[in-house]
């Protein structure tokens, strides 16, 4: 999933509120306010894959399904669905009477099956440059249409069989297809409005239509945006916060704790630098709690297609990154516990992840995916090994003598809107240079922009070695392995030298394609595990952690929110309400234990 800037979302969004919600009195407006430092550039959910952007859109537009607070699939705009025996054809009956409205809440049209066809047509039209088109190619002939091999969209596997029935025919059996519908590329759009607006669709609140729980009533980039409850929403009784107000502040992550102390805000992320002060203060200690873990995974990517400025010696980096021993020296030389202490100083080991796919995502006959044979040796071992790191350094220097210049300049950017990321970069620079020697590497920490970091730094490849992240789009291991395939999102491993198989394809590409061809999870998942293990064994990436690290003071109860490891469900405010006071860490732990028990029972009852 191209959720590129989860790091930004965790670090630059701070939740504020003017009042403590509807619990204070009947009829009182519940307002939830946020400040942010990373501005969105579009509302076009059919095009973007930026977390900040589709996090807003998820509250403005509904899809076919959604999830409850335990992660059980629930009807959304579809009231029912069925598939054929091999899960290659799926049919959805739509909820009638759902309206498209404008930013003032005025009705424009009914939501019909054609809207889902029109949405997918836009996504799969290559000229629209949708960042999520690759997910939608699960639909039959989707890739052929995207590549221009066919030009008649009626040949693509989506059609409105009547006004309120939409049918998807897929490239092959896809038992996890329901989970894919939780992502923006399968959302509907009112085709007539989209055609009328053209490239201006999603650029302003007026150039957008809404069928979700909120409408965008105000939108002034780098100043303010307001989401107001949609009075025509089909499930408005479960929308408990009346208004969401976002206010731009370039220092959002820094100023929030002080605003909270002054009683001006409802919640704030608490940076590690002041965390001890909060826990040692008799009044503040009961206001701060841990964040909830997520299925976002963080890892350090080694870039095989460096596009940074000449002063950082990209050609030299190109030479050394293609040396396995050099990569292995970085792989074993990164002390992940030291890095994690910048956000979790108390229990850093609990957030570390030794694989790209997190634990507890999927399993095969009760065996967790990360414990399958190919991955188990990584899952159960810390990658940091100072002795091995130095041994690989010595091998690399011997092999690269006369071919590369030492010390190697290692450009490592971070987002300037994230104080913890900035601190972590400094820790890693010092730790790795001290271990491996400044005669070997010169890690150059670079402060990238707080807004547009993805487009200006990561996507163009203006880094050598950098922390990146990924979140799942659907319930299958391919959601974590696809970003590394040709045309994927990360570090261009297909350009690594010496990894071409006899068929002319990169070795990793063949491993991933072999896994995709298998249908039965008992065969499919171990094959994906082999592909992922290859990336780790060859040190193309250094797995680091799972998301959700850090501490905050918040009047939101995370266990009331819709829950799903994939897609946009967890970005929704629907179902949440403002508490009278923030949860303490003890209250959080108790609520989490109760939720985990209830979720296990709910999953068992649902047959998951």
TrEMBL record:
Protein's GO biological process: peptide transport
Major localization listed first in the record, in broad terms: membrane
SUPFAM superfamilies registered for this protein in UniProt: Periplasmic binding protein-like II
GO cellular component: ATP-binding cassette (ABC) transporter complex; periplasmic space
Record GO terms (molecular function): peptide transmembrane transporter activity
Domain (Solute-binding protein family) ranges: 73-489
Domain of life: Bacteria
Keyword vocabulary terms for this entry: Signal, Transport
Compartmental location: Cell membrane
Segment forming the signal sequence: 1-17
UniProt membrane topology term: Lipid-anchor
Similarity field: Belongs to the bacterial solute-binding protein 5 family.
Protein name: Peptide ABC transporter substrate-binding protein
């Amino acid at each position: 999933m191209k959720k590129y800037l989860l790091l930004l979302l965790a670090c630059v969004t701070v939740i504020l509120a003017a009042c403590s919600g509807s619990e204070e009195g009947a009829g009182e407006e519940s307002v939830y306010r946020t400040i942010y430092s990373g501005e969105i550039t579009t509302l076009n959910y059919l095009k973007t894959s930026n977390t900040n952007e589709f996090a807003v859109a998820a509250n403005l537009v509904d899809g076919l399904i959604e999830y409850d607070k335990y992660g059980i699939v629930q009807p959304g705009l579809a009231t029912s669905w069925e598939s054929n025996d091999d899960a290659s054809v799926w049919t959805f009956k739509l909820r009638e009477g759902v309206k498209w409205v404008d930013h003032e809440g005025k009705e424009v049209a009914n939501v019909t099956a054609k809207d889902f066809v029109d949405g997918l047509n836009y996504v799969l039209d290559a000229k629209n440059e949708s960042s999520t088109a690759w997910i939608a190619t699960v639909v039959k002939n989707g890739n052929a249409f995207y590549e221009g091999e066919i030009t008649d969209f009626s040949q693509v596997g989506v059609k409105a069989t009547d006004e309120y029935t939409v049918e998807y025919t897929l490239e092959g059996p896809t038992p996890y297809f329901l989970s894919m519908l939780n992502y923006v590329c399968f959302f509907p759009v009112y085709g007539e409005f989209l055609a009328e607006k053209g490239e201006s669709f999603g650029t302003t609140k007026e150039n957008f239509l809404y069928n979700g729980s909120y409408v965008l009533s105000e939108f002034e980039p780098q100043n303010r945006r307001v989401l107001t409850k949609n009075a025509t929403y089909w499930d408005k009784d479960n929308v408990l916060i009346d208004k969401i107000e976002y206010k731009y502040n370039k220092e959002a992550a820094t100023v929030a704790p002080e605003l909270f102390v002054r009683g001006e805000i409802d919640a704030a992320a608490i940076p590690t630098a002041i965390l001890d002060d909060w826990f040692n203060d008799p009044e503040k200690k009961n206001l701060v709690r841990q964040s909830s873990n997520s299925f976002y995974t963080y890892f350090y990517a080694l870039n095989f297609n460096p596009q940074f400025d000449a002063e950082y010696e990209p050609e030299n980096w190109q030479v050394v990154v293609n040396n396995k021993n050099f990569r292995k020296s970085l792989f074993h030389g990164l002390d992940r516990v030291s890095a994690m202490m910048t956000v979790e100083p108390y229990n850093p080991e609990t957030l570390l992840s030794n694989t790209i796919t997190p634990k507890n995502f999927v399993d095969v006959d009760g065996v967790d995916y990360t414990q399958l044979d190919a991955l188990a040796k990584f899952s159960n071992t810390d990658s940091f090994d100072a002795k091995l790191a130095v041994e690989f350094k010595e091998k690399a220097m011997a092999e690269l003598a006369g071919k590369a210049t030492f010390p190697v300049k290692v450009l490592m950017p971070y987002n300037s809107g994230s104080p913890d990321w900035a601190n972590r970069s400094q820790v890693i620079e010092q730790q790795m240079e001290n271990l491996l020697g400044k005669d070997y590497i010169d890690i150059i920490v670079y402060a990238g922009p707080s807004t547009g970091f993805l487009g200006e730094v990561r996507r163009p490849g203006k880094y050598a070695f950098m922390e990146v992240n990924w979140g799942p789009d659907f319930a299958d291991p391919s959601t974590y392995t696809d970003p590394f395939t040709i045309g994927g999102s990360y570090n261009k491993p297909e350009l690594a030298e010496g990894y071409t198989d006899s068929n002319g394809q990169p070795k990793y590409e063949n491993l991933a394609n072999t896994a995709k061809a298998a249908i039965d999870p008992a065969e499919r998942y171990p094959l994906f595990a082999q592909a992922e293990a290859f990336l780790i064994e060859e040190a193309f990436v250094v797995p680091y952690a799972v998301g959700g690290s850090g501490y905050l003071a918040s009047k939101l109860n995370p266990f009331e929110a819709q829950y799903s490891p994939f897609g946009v469900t967890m970005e929704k405010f629907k179902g949440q309400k403002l508490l009278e006071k923030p949860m303490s860490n003890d209250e959080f732990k108790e609520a989490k234990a109760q939720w985990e028990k209830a979720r296990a029972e709910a999953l068992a009852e649902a047959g998951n």
